[in-house]
């Protein structure tokens, strides 16, 4: 299985992403921009998940009722994102990965929340916050019906 290693800015948190990319999204919502200092948030989930090698300085912050954001308490780097209901399904920040070769963006999400100060690229489909939430609810229902 393919492995990609990654780390935060100070190197306190180290991780490995296993397998292939399931989905790589760019989120333009105001929370992601606030957390990251103004830019969009790039993250991907992998078929084999993420394992943390060192994580003493990894803290999960509950930014909303459903999601939480992993960051390094020493350097402040954004490391990962996950749903509180699915802590095993971690999306890793693309900026944390040492090698991002071959990773392509599947969609730009919360595009209706994007700011005026940059233009959202058209390299992948755009989804509004409403579209993202509708897809999320549909997937939840499918999972429950299995
Ligand atoms: Zn760090
Ligand atoms: Zn966001």
Would you write up a description of this structure?
The two termini are 27 Å apart. The radius of gyration is 15 Å and the shape is globular. The chain contains two helices and eleven strands; from the N terminus they run E-E-E-H-E-E-E-E-E-E-E-E-H. Strand 1 and strand 2 (14-18) form a beta hairpin. The chain is α+β, with helices and mostly antiparallel strands and 146 residues long. It has an eight-stranded mixed beta sheet. The mean pLDDT is 95. The protein has helices at 30-36, 129-145, and strands spanning 3-7, 14-18, 21-27, 41-46, 50-54, 58-61, 67-72, 78-83, 86-93, 107-109, 126-127. It has one domain: Metal Binding Protein, Guanine Nucleotide Exchange Factor, Chain A. 16% of the residues lie in helices and 39% in strands. The chain binds zinc ion (2 copies). One zinc ion (ZN) binds at residues 27, 29, 31-32, 41, 110.
- The number of domains: 1
**Contiguous helical run count:** 2
What distance separates the N and C termini?
27 Å
CATH fold naming: Metal Binding Protein, Guanine Nucleotide Exchange Factor, Chain A
What summary fits the major beta sheet? 8 strands, mixed
General shape: globular
CATH class annotation? Mainly Beta
Uncertain runs: none
Hetero groups in this structure are: zinc ion
- The percentage helix is 10-25%
SSE string, helix = H, strand = E? EEEHEEEEEEEEH
Mean pLDDT: 95
Structural class: alpha+beta
Number of strands: 11
Q: What is the gyration radius calculated from CA atoms?
A: 15 Å
Under the CATH scheme, which architecture would be assigned? Beta Complex
Fraction of residues in β-strands: 35-45%
Side by side, the strands of the main sheet go 6-7-8-9-4-3-10-11
């Amino acid at each position: 299985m393919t492995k990609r290693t990654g780390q935060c800015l100070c190197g306190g948190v180290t991780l490995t992403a296993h397998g292939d990319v399931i989905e790589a999204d760019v989120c333009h919502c105001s929370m992601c921009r606030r957390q990251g200092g103004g830019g969009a948030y790039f993250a991907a989930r992998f078929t084999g998940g993420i394992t943390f090698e060192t994580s003493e300085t990894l803290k999960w912050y509950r930014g909303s009722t459903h999601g939480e954001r992993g960051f390094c308490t020493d350097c402040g780097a954004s490391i990962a994102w996950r749903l509180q209901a699915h802590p095993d399904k971690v999306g890793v920040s693309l900026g944390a990965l040492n090698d991002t070769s071959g990773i392509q963006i599947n969609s730009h999400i919360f595009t209706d929340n994007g700011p005026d100060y940059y233009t959202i690229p058209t390299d992948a489909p755009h989804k509004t916050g409403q579209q993202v939430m509708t897809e999320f609810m549909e997937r939840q229902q499918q999972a429950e019906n299995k």
